[in-house]
Write a structure and sequence with these properties.
Blueprint lengths: L1 H10 L64 H38 L4 H22 L7 H25 L6 H37 L27 H25 L5 H5 L4 H8 L3
Length: 291
């Protein structure tokens, strides 16, 4: 028995009762089968709460250089609102810049009419240089980005307008009264806007009150749905129909126009010389008793 155990240990090397595999040298253990490691299970991302396409992680992160602050990308719905807000702000700034463009064109024409041809070119060149500088720094800023283009446009035409107005005030023999040209019409326009807002709201309330007195099955000035129920706004108030809105807007425009022209005459923002440039301006000046 001892010789047999020694023979097994020396021949098979494992003490096993099974003979060695073919091709295995005696005295060496049999090769163990290689076990392939199973890949770790990847965590499944949570379903996209916003309903856009296939399931996605709830928050994705934007690629940033090493060491930079990493911020999560905005969800699709919020990202749409951000894009819309950026567009609104950019167009708002460009709207203000368009006013400066109008002033620049008028002031350049005034200087050219007085044979000051090179000065408008100089102010325009200064504005273009300023636009390039402001646009370079603002558009390259990730926090401002494309909005820097609108801001640089406003800076460009704003500085041109300011320089043109200063030149007109100092260089022309007959300088303009900027209080009469800007302040008085601006005050009249502000009063006109306030009047239009107030008249529109009061007319709407008046039309709603008339509908409440009539007690018609189908309201005359209020908006109703297909089921005959009144349409309400976000605040829970009744809405005017297209007829009611048309009446309210027409009344607001008419009253606001009367207020504007009355204030223009009372503040003497327009002179007899200004009216003389219009067809039959002399007759209008005599009718309005403008000296």
């Amino acid at each position: 028995m001892t010789d047999q155990n020694q023979w097994q240990n020396s021949a098979w090397g494992t003490g096993s009762s099974q003979p060695p595999a073919p091709g295995t040298p005696q005295g060496q253990p049999a090769a163990q089968p290689q076990v392939q490691p199973q890949p770790a299970a990847q965590p499944q991302p949570a379903p996209n709460p916003y309903g856009y396409g296939a399931p996605q992680p709830r928050a994705a992160y934007t690629a940033q250089p090493q060491g930079a602050y990493v911020t999560p990308a905005a969800p699709p719905k919020r990202r749409g609102w951000i894009v819309a807000l950026v567009a609104v702000l950019a167009f708002f700034v460009l709207g203000i810049a368009s006013i400066a463009v109008c002033f620049m064109l008028v002031s350049n024409s005034i200087m050219q009419a007085h044979k000051l041809v090179t000065l408008p070119m100089a102010t325009t060149l200064i504005g273009c240089i300023l636009k390039l500088i402001v646009g370079y720094f603002l558009i390259g800023n990730p926090d401002i980005n494309i909005r820097g283009g609108a801001i640089s446009t406003l800076a460009c035409f704003g500085i041109i307008t300011l320089l043109d107005l200063v030149i007109i005030k100092l260089a022309l023999p007959r300088s303009l009264s900027y209080a009469r040209v800007f302040a008085k019409p601006a005050a009249a326009a502000a009063a006109m806007g306030a009047t239009a807002w107030a008249v529109n709201g009061l007319t709407g309330q008046l039309l709603m009150w008339i509908d409440s007195l009539l007690k018609r099955e189908v309201p005359l000035f209020l908006a109703v749905g297909e089921d005959g129920a009144l349409l309400l706004d976000q605040a829970g108030k009744a809405m005017l129909s297209w007829k009611g809105n048309a009446l309210a807007v027409t009344a607001a425009i008419g009253v606001a126009a009367i207020v504007y022209f009355a204030l223009i005459l009372l503040t003497k923002a327009i002179s007899k010389e200004d009216l003389a440039l219009m067809p039959k301006g002399d007759k209008i000046a005599r009718l309005l008793r403008i000296q």
